[in-house]
Amino acid sequence: MTEPDDVDGAPGALTKPDFEALARFRFGIRRYLRFSEETVRSHGVTPQHYQLLLALKGFPGREWASVRELADRLQLRHHSVVELVNRAQDQGLVERAPHPDDARAVRVQLTADGERILGRLSALHRDELRRMGDVLALPIWHDGAGPG
Fold first, then answer.
1. Which domain of life is it from (predicted)?
2. What pLDDT is attached to residue 94?
């Protein structure tokens, strides 16, 4: 059953505090992304390369990923990831190796330089997130709708 004030399937009207919480959260996201972009560039890496390195190191259960898996993680098209990997490989950040299960695919993994740069940048990102504290906490809604 839907509530009477449903608009396009979105239950409940937002209150002024809801809009403020949403705006504060959006501001926090943008502030963090700006910090990230400026920080990685100051270390000679593009934001896209940092995201690639992080996706590789953070891939569940192993230290490498296929281009297809990276495209999913980065929410990019396959050909865009191929180009991104090519540029990162030219910079010595990643390398390609034979895929263990699929002769048509390759696995992408970090180089020692990629590991070193990622470690330094990720520590800076962790520290910034700690400084930001509650700014990136999920908003608490005041619209009267409970969880679930």
1. Bacteria
2. 98
